[in-house]
Design goal:
- It is found in: Membrane.
- This is Epithelial membrane protein 3.
- Keywords: Glycoprotein, Membrane, Transmembrane, Transmembrane helix.
- It is a multi-pass membrane protein.
- The protein has helices at 2-35, 72-101, 109-131, 133-136, 150-171; strands spanning 40-43, 46-48, 52-57, 62-67, 147-148.
- By secondary structure, the chain is an alpha+beta fold.
- It has one domain (2-38, 71-171): Butyryl-CoA Dehydrogenase, subunit A, domain 3.
- Strands 4-3-2-1-5 form a five-stranded antiparallel β-sheet.
- The radius of gyration is 20 Å and the shape is elongated.
- The relative contact order is 0.19.
- The mean pLDDT is 85.
């Protein structure tokens, strides 16, 4: 019987480590997707993100960036990505608090719901950018010569990870 409880405790410890690691990795990916400069790439010398249009100057070997033209669609994507980072951060902090203060048998509903909201806001942001990239980047170079960048792909990758971790949190029950 003692072996069973030790094995069970070990499984619970592994589950908590897995969910914590998943949350931190997803939060880092969200932060990079929101702040880094590669939502749309024309070549290795020019790209655009949620905040700036940048091009590489060979003579000075630096990136020259200017603010993006604020469109309603771009502002929606910016707000939704920032909200996603905020929801995921709040979710992690609440999880840590609940982990140490919640009574035995309690469920991590609030943590899970915050994580699900983070996933839904990231999904909305990525979907808006996908559908309205021509309105978001109207004054930029020919869009047909460009492609979506790695930050855009990271935003899409975060969606299922956030939703899955939110569902895991909702079903996670605190043991001893």
């Amino acid at each position: 019987m003692l072996l069973y409880n030790t094995d069970r405790d070990l499984k619970m410890a592994y589950l908590l480590m897995f969910i914590t690691l998943l949350h931190l990795i997803t939060l880092a990916m969200l932060f990079v997707a929101t702040m880094e400069k590669s939502w749309w790439v024309w070549d290795s010398m020019e790209n655009s993100d949620l905040w700036y249009n940048c091009r590489f100057d060979n003579s000075t070997e630096t990136w020259l960036c200017s603010s993006t033209k604020e469109t309603d669609w771009l502002q929606a994507v910016q707000v939704l990505m920032v909200l996603s980072v905020v929801f995921s951060s709040v979710s992690f902090l609440v999880f840590l608090g609940q982990l140490f203060t919640m009574s035995k048998g309690g469920l991590f509903y609030f943590t899970g719901l915050c994580q699900v909201f983070a996933g839904l806001t990231a999904f909305s942001a990525a979907l808006i950018y996908t559908l309205h990239v021509t309105e978001i980047l109207p004054d930029s170079k020919q869009l047909s010569s460009g492609r979506f960048g790695y930050c855009f792909i990271l935003a899409w990758l975060c969606v299922p990870l956030l939703l899955c971790s939110g569902i895991i949190y909702i079903h996670l029950r605190k043991k001893e």
